[in-house]
Amino acid sequence: MYQDTSIAMLDELLASSVKAYHQYKTYSLKQRADFMRTIAKEIEALGEELIETAMAETNLPAARLMNERGRTIFQLNSYAEAAEKGNWLEASIDTALPERTPPKPDLRKMLMPLGTVVVFGASNFPFAYSTAGGDTACAFAAGCPVVVKAHPAHAKTSTLVAKAIHEAAKKCNMPDGIFHHVYGAGFETGEYLAKHPAVKAIGFTGSLSGGKALFDWANQRKSPIPVFAEMGSANPVFLLPEKLITETEALAKQYAGSITLGMGQFCTNPGLLIAIDGEGLDRFVQHLRKEIKSIVPSKMLHAGISKNYSEKLAKALAQKGVQLLTQTEYAIGEGEGLISIATTTARTFLSNPVLHQEVFGPYSLIVQCQNEAEMLEIAKSLEGQLTATLMASPKDIRKHQELLDYVQEICGRFILNNVPTGVEVSLPMHHGGPFPASTDSRFTSVGADGIKRFARPIAFQNWDDEFLPNELKNANPLGIWRTVNNELTRNPIS
Amino acid sequence: MYQDTSIAMLDELLASSVKAYHQYKTYSLKQRADFMRTIAKEIEALGEELIETAMAETNLPAARLMNERGRTIFQLNSYAEAAEKGNWLEASIDTALPERTPPKPDLRKMLMPLGTVVVFGASNFPFAYSTAGGDTACAFAAGCPVVVKAHPAHAKTSTLVAKAIHEAAKKCNMPDGIFHHVYGAGFETGEYLAKHPAVKAIGFTGSLSGGKALFDWANQRKSPIPVFAEMGSANPVFLLPEKLITETEALAKQYAGSITLGMGQFCTNPGLLIAIDGEGLDRFVQHLRKEIKSIVPSKMLHAGISKNYSEKLAKALAQKGVQLLTQTEYAIGEGEGLISIATTTARTFLSNPVLHQEVFGPYSLIVQCQNEAEMLEIAKSLEGQLTATLMASPKDIRKHQELLDYVQEICGRFILNNVPTGVEVSLPMHHGGPFPASTDSRFTSVGADGIKRFARPIAFQNWDDEFLPNELKNANPLGIWRTVNNELTRNPIS
Questions:
Q1: Which residue among A138, A144, A267, A411 is the active-site one?
Q2: B350-400 pLDDT, tens per residue?
Q3: Which ipTM did the prediction report?
Q4: Which one of A55, A83, A101, B118 has the minimum C-beta count within 10 Å?
Q5: Are residues B198 and B282 in the same domain?
C-alpha cells in the first residue's frame, strides 16, 4: 500500500533531521513539553477515524484501542511534565574553590540530547508503542528529532498519527525535520537507518530477532550508537505452595484472565507458570482448565502474528515431554488464536531450551517441579525477563529467600501477588530487563526515566554564568532540582 | 615475572565471585562504604613500599605518585560517601491507588548491582585508574564483586594494592571472592574474561584498540554485557582571535605546561590546538616555541609507551603538509619522550584522518585556519572527545555560537579558558564522551555517577513493606532521597 521510502529520500530526510536537531536542542524544556502536549491534542482530534483505521488494520477491538489511545495521550502529557520538571537532567554543580591547591574549578553537568533517534514501533501497540508512542515521546522530551519507520502491519494508522505529529510541529513552530515518517516493508530500510551516520540512537519494541539485528548493526558501525530494544519475554510466574493451596480457585481465574488478555499479545504475558507438585497444583490445574475452556478466542493482530503463533505453539507442543493440558472449547475462526495451556516437568523444561522461549500469543506452559530445589534450579536457568512474578503468602516468602534472590537476578520488574500484564506508566515503572528481555538492562522504555536513553551528560568547566544553559545558571531560573556541592536543592547559588 | 592465571583458575575464581555477589548484594550501603574506606586505609598503610614499587615499574616520580595515591584514597572515600548517601540509587515510589479503574499498584524502583565486574586498569595511572581505582571503587559501591586483571606494565604495584584490598575484605568480613586479582600478559586472558558468562560488566581505561576489542567481544556474547571503555582522545583546544591576541604569552605558557604535564601521558592531554591565522597566532607560536624548548624531558611510563610514542610521533610528522615547529632543546635519554610541536593547515588536517588521531605523549599539533569557516569545519569533522576547550573572550563567545554548538556535540567535558589536564573527582565531572572517546557516551568513569555503570533498575510491584529493601520501605530508614509520587523527598511514607 505504501511504497518503501527510497534511499535518496532517506538521506534527504536524515539531513533535515540533523539540521532540526541543532535548532531543537536549543529549545527550552517548556517548548519541548508544549510540543508533546500539542501532539496529544492532535491525536485526540483525529477522533473516530484513528480508531476505525486501527481496527481495520490490527483486529483490535474499539474499546482496547480507545484505551490505548488514552495511554498514548497520557504518556505524551506525563513525559512532557517530567521533561519540564527537569529531574531527569541530573543537573549537578560544584562551585569553584580558587583557594584550594590546586584550585578547584567550577564544574556543572547536565544531560544533553544525543541527536536523531530512529523509532521502530511495536505491532501489538499501534498507538502507545508506535509512531507517537513511548520512544518518540522520550526522544522529543530529551531534545532529539525523531524518524519513525512505520510498522508495515499498521502503516495507515501510523500515517494518520504522523500527520498529527506534523500538525503539532507546525502549530508549535518546531524546526522543519523535527519528525519524519518513513516506510519499509523489508529489513533493508531498518538496516540502512541503523547504519546511517546521522542516526544517533535507536528505540525498538518487537521480536528478539529484530532487536538483536539492530543492536548488531549499531555496534558494528564506525561509531557505535545506543540501541534500546525491548524484545519481550516469557514472564515466569512462581506459584508457591501455601499461596497455591489457600487461593487455588482465585489464582486460576486471575491467571486465565492474564494469559488470554488481548489474546496473549502483550510482552508481559505470563508464558510460564512454575509450581511444585501436590494437591494445590492439581486443583489449580483443574480450575485453570475450566476457566480456559470457556474463554472465547478472538482475532490476533494480523495474519503474520497469527501464523507465527500457530507455528510456535505447534513447535512447543511437539517437544518431547510436553502435554497439552487444555484449549478453548470454541471453534477457531480464521486468524484467531488457539488458547492453549500445556504442562511439562521441571526436568524436561531444564533440558530443552525451546521451552524457555516466548510463544507470543494466548499460551502458557505449566512447569511441574518435584520439590523446591527444582524450582530454584529453574529460576537459575532462566534468561533475562521483563517481569517475574511470585504468588506467595508471607510464610512462603520467608521460606524461599534463595528463590527470591535468583528471581530478582533475571527480571526488570518483580511482582508479588499480582499479574504481570498491565504496565503502569509512571516513574517507578521499569520496563526492560537483562538480555534478551532488552539490549541494555540499565534503561527502561516505559516511564519518564526512558528519556535518559536518548541523552548523555556534558560537563561545563569554568564557564561564566552568562554563557551556561539556563538549567545550570546560578539563579536556577527554571527552579529545577540540582545537586549543588553534593546537596540536592532547588535553591539558587548565591 | 608473574605467570598468567590459568583458565582453570579463572573459572574457579569467577565461580567464587558469583557466590560472593549473592552475599555482597545483600550488604547494606554502610557496609559497602566501610569496606571502601578500609581499602583506602590499607593502601595508605602500604606506605613507602607502594611508592617505591610504582616508581621502579613506571618511571613516575615520587611526588606524582604520592599525589595519585591521594587521589585514589579520595576516590574510595568520596564514592563510599556517595554510595551511602544513596542518591545514585534513583529510588522512586508510586503508592497504590486501589480505588482507580483499573487499580493502580504500588510500584517502587531502585538500582541493583549487575554482578561481577572485570576491571582493566590504565598504564598511566597505576593507582587511580588501576587495581583499586575508579572502576573498582564504583563497582564495590554498586554492590558488585570485582576481578582485576593486573596491568602487565605495573603488575608488582597491582599485586601490592590487591593485597591491601584483600586485607580490607578480611577486616570487613566481606564474602570470600569479593575481589580477585589475575594476571595475563597477552590479550587472551582479557578475551576469556570478557566472554565468560559469570562476568556481567567491564570497566576499561586504555587504548582504542583494547577498548574496542572488549566492546566487540562483550556484544558478541550470547548475552551481551555493558562495557565502559575510556579510550582517550586528542582533546582539541580552540583558540579564538580576541583571546589569543590579548593573552598571547600567558596562553603559550599555560599550554606549554599542559601539553608536557606528566610527559603528555594523560588521556586529557591537549593534542590539537586550532586557531585562525594572524598576528595573534604568529606571536602565540613564537612564545610556545620558546616555552617548549626549555622544558626538560623525562622518562615515559615504560619502554612500550616510549616506543609507541616515537613511532606515532614519527608517523604524524611524516604526513604531507605537517611541519615540525619546535622540540625540546635538551638531549633525549633512553625512554624519554621527545617533546614536540608541529603545525599544519586546516585543509591538510581536514583531508588526513591520521592527523585526527591521538599521539599519546608530549606532542601537540597546531592547526592553522584561514578563517572562521575553516575552524567550524574542523569542529564538525572531529570524532568524539573526552574534552574540548575554548580559549575565548566574552566577545569571542558571542561571535562564535555555531562553533560552540558543534564543539559541544563532540565532547564529554567542555572547558572555557582553562586546560583539559587535571580531572576533578566530583559528582559534576563527566569523564567520557562520544565514541571513540568512550564506548557509551551516557556514562562516566570519574565521579560518583560512575557507579551507575554497574547497576540496573529493578521495580517491585505490590510488595509488602516488610519484604522490600530498606531503601524502599515506607519508613525510609536510611533517610535517602526518593521520588515519592513524583516529588523528591526524604520523608517517610505515612
A1: A267
A2: 999 999 999 999 999 999 999 999 999 999 999 999 999 999 999 999 999
A3: 0.98
A4: A101
A5: no
